Structures are given as structure tokens and as C-alpha cells.
């Protein structure tokens, strides 16, 4: 089929559906979308609350819990122990399909009745001493950790997997003893760094690979004992490091400014963050083949992914991974196959459509809260023959009687859930982080607005009173409520005040860094600002021959295009007006200090597949 241009129902912008897209939609047996890729991403994100927690009670046992759902939720909310127990039966809420109502109207009616778990975590047995977490699992001794799994002793982390003893991390994988890091993988004892792989015992790194004992470096490969990209002997390095006083607040602030002013923006960077890819587009992507995505690893023949690990033949996906032949899914994975339009559902799912909170089930449609079930529609059990006949009738009915939302947009079979059916207020979801809306915009669209929680902390210590070194801090700090340096003047969900917990204090003492002056929400927002947007621009390489186009960087070797500007063009998440020097792959790799890892075809395929 030829390429086709359509107009998005939501934003009214044109978007393209390419031949490969049509082939995928045919394979997964859905009609092409009527929303553009960006609006589809916003819609998916509106069904996932990661970081907003509320105090409320379990509606079954009345125990006080920390929940992803506020007390104003329209449905019952159970604590994890009650929800995963046999104290209730999801079939009690089952109902016949009504062909006089739209499918989504009936799903909303079911959603308002079926209990939901207080957080979107895996079962209680997989989380030990980790009460203050959400969208998490298989972890121990974790606190304020979100969208993460397989961790131990992790605090204030987001999208962190298979890591241990880390604090204040974002997109951190397979790492240990890391602090204030973003987009790091297989790192040890690394601090204030981003986009690093296989690094250790270092600080203030950007885009470094296999480096150790380096401070304030950019783009290095296989280096040791470097400061500001300058080599030292071991003894020289240790002397210079001591002079920097990086264990003190003034030393850190002084060095951070020097690093950002004198090096961070003065060296070229590759047009995307990632490695070991073939035929990919997007950003923060690795070990992938024929894939378009952001924060994606080990993906093949997939498109429109965000935060996805291990995927094959998957389109329009957000959060987690390990799935094949799936479409428009949110917070699902761990061996899902041929699933469409599901959110917060995972496990060995097969042939599941339009479901939520369903686990290890197959051949179900429009269900909520089922576990290990088959042939169910709207939480009602059928025989295989009855199910298949009714399934066909419902899909036809969805096309003939589409749901119309408050803005007049139509949702027939093949469209994901309307945002107004989300179980969360828009303000609590990931959508508000990436696609922020005002109160009036949210209410006009028919979404839920949640007023910010009023915090009435009694501040006992001002942030300006915090010592400049951790060695000056006593155990009494654990009793204090410290004011956040932003004092609520930012737009980052500032908590105004914060406490240092014992596990946190021990970590700062172990790695010898001063206490933070910002609350955990403001610190998280600072890391979020480091990442590039989930959007691509068409640009040309800014290598002008001997120098970068802005004249700041002098190339160290002659590039393939000689004295002329590089002719290469690409899609990049670096907007044209940004100050970074952005090179194509060939120009970036031309630097002799930056050899790329090269695999033979056999080894490459073993990694990608």
C-alpha cells in the first residue's frame, strides 16, 4: 500500500502513514489510527500516574495507605494485600454486553465499580520494605522510587532498573552507588553525570564510555585520570582532585559552573544518544534494529516507543517491555503477545484487548481486574464459541456505534481509550509532564483536574543553614523539616519542605557529598530538564569542514567531506535553535579519541535479536 497523509482528529495537524505502518496494522488486525503519533503518545501517558501519591484508606480493610488514587476516586481502592487476595471476586462485577450503548460507555461503567490496587505495583511479595513506591516491582528497601524494578536500596529514582544503592537517578540501568545521574548504564560510583556507559569512580561526565577516575569530561572513550578532558598521571590526578574540594557544596557549585561554561557546550555531540543500532530514529536508543523510539533498548521492527526494553513488532507503547506484536499499550509487558489497547496489565497475556489490571490471561475483552482467566467480556465468563461470536459482534458494533467524547471526537474499534476514561486526574499523569495543560484546558477537554495538595509543613531548618560538608551533619538532621530552596516559587510540584531519611543520610555519608537543598520533586525536575524532548527535527550536520559551523570547535582530523560543510542530514531531538554542536555519526566518530564499538554481523545480530 502507498503512503497516506491524514489529519489528526485531536490537533488537526497532518501526519503520514507509511507502507510499513499499513503492513503492521494489517498484521495486528486494526484499522489505521485517526490520531497523529504525538497525540497518541499524550493519550497513552494520560493513563499512567507515576509520581503523584495520596494518603487514603483501603475501602475493604480500612488500613491507611499511600496510594496513586486520591480519596475522590470514583471506584473502590484496595490495599495490595486485599486486592491480591481472595476476599473479592472480579466476576461479581460482570455484565452482559449492551448493544444499545457504546463499548467505551460500558467500560467506564465497569471501571467505576471494580476495585483497583492502591498503587500500580506488582504483588506485595515482590516489594520488600518499599511502601513509598509506584509502578514498581521486584525490589527491596526502596523509597520514592517510580517506574522501576529489580532494585535494592534505591531512593528518589525514576525509570531505574537492575540497580543497587543509588539515589536521585533517572533512566539508570544495571548500576551501583550512583548519585544524581541521568541516562547511565552499567556504571559504578558515578555522580552528577549523564549519558554514560561502563564508567566508574567519576563525576560530571557527559557521553563517556568505559572511563574511570575522570572528572568534568565530555565524549571520552576508554580513558582514565582525566580532568576537563586533559590527561594526568595517577598522582597528579589525585592532587588536582583534592584541590577541587568536590566533597563540599562550594567546591561542587564552582566546578559545575566551570564545567558547563568551559566544556559542556564546546565539544560536538552525536545527533542522538545511543549505540549499537541499525536503521533507527529517535533518541536514547540502543541495541535496536529498524525501530523508532525514545528510551528504548533491545527493540526490533517497532515504532513509536517510549521507555521500552525488549520489544519486537510493537507500535505505540509506553513504559516497561518484554512483549511482541502489541499495539497501543501502557504499562504492560513481561511476555505479552498480540495485545491491543491495554493499560496497567502484564504477565503472560495473549489476545487481550481493551483491558486494565488484568494479569496472566488470554482471549479477554473489556475486562478489569482478572487474573489467570480466559474467554471473558466485561468481566463475564463465556465458552470459547460464545466468546468468539460475541467478540466479532462487538467489534462490528464499535464501528457502527462509536463513542463520542465531550469534544466531539469519535472512537471506533481501533482507537485507544479516550483520555476522559482515564482513572487518574490529568494533572497526576505523565501526560501533564510532557504535554502540560492549564486548568481551563483540562476542564474544557472533559478531563479531571486535581487541585495541588496544600502542604502545611512546620519548617525547623532553613536550607541556607545546611552545612557545606556531610562531615558537619549530625544525626539530629533526621528530626528536622528543611525548607526547599525553591520555596514553592517554581512550577515543579515543590513540596516546600522535606526530611532526610536515615537510609539517605547513610548514603551521603558513604559517598561524602553534602546534603541537598532541594526537595525530591524539584531535584527530579532538574534531571528531567537535562533530557531532550520527545520530538524530532530535520537538521543538517553542523560540521563546516575544519571547524564546527559556529566556529567554537576545531576538528582534530580531516573529515570525509574535506574543507566543505558536511552534507549529511538527520532527524534529531536537538532543536535547531539550541546551542549544542550537533554532528552526524561519521563526523562525530572521526575524532580519534572516540572510536565506536564495532561488532561483526553475527555478534551484532546476537545483541539486537
- Total beta-strand segments: 35
Count of individual helical segments = 13
Q: Which residue ranges are poorly predicted, with pLDDT under 50 across at least 5 consecutive positions?
A: 596-601, 603-609
Q: Outline the biggest β-sheet.
A: 10 strands, mixed
Instruction: Please give the alpha-carbon distance between the first and last residues.
Output: 28 Å
Total tally of structural domains: 4
Sequence of strands across the biggest β-sheet: 8-10-11-12-13-14-15-16-17-18
Structural class by SSE content? alpha/beta
Strand content: 25-35%
Q: How large is the radius of gyration?
A: 25 Å
Overall pLDDT level: 94
Kindly state the percentage of residues in helix: 10-25%
> What overall geometry do the principal axes of the alpha carbons give?
globular
What do you see in this structure?
With 609 residues, the protein is an alpha/beta fold. The protein folds into 4 domains: 1-119 and 277-452, no CATH class; 163-270, no CATH class; 463-528, no CATH class; 536-609, no CATH class. It contains 13 helices and 35 strands. The strands form 10 sheets. The protein has a 10-stranded mixed beta sheet.
In short:
The protein has 609 residues and is of the alpha/beta class.
Q: Topology of this structure?
A:
Blueprint: E1 4-7, E2 14-17, H1 19-28, H2 37-45, E3 54-57, E4 64-67, E5 77-78, H3 80-83, H4 103-111, E6 116-117, E7 127-128, E8 133-137, E9 139-140, E10 143-149, E11 152-161, E12 164-173, E13 179-185, E14 188-197, E15 200-206, E16 212-218, E17 224-227, E18 230-231, H5 234-244, H6 249-264, E19 269-270, E20 274-275, E21 278-286, E22 289-333, E23 336-337, E24 340-346, E25 350-356, E26 362-365, E27 374-377, E28 380-381, H7 384-400, E29 403-404, E30 410-411, H8 430-434, H9 439-445, E31 482-483, E32 497-498, H10 502-511, H11 520-528, E33 537-540, E34 569-572, E35 582-583, H12 585-589, H13 601-608
